[in-house]
What we know:
Order of helices and strands: HH
Structural class: mainly alpha
Helix content: over 70%
Radius of gyration: 26 Å
Amino acid sequence: MTGAAARQALASAAMRLGFGEVLVILAIALLVFGPTKLPQLGDALGKGIRNFRKAQSGADEEAEQARLPAARQTVVQQAAPAEAKRE
């Protein structure tokens, strides 16, 4: 196995979390933040993820909208000389 392949295998193995690992992480979070703050943290995390997704889709829509008028303008410019020739 080459060095790059070994690093890639190690990185992909490091990102897999089983049920036990997730349970340990949640238990530590409960101990650190306490039962009153944990729901607030979950809510804040959920809102942050939701806002990130909205921003990503908004950026995609803005890029699409910026691209479409340019394409329409090109079509209009190409049609204009054809109309001028008819007159």
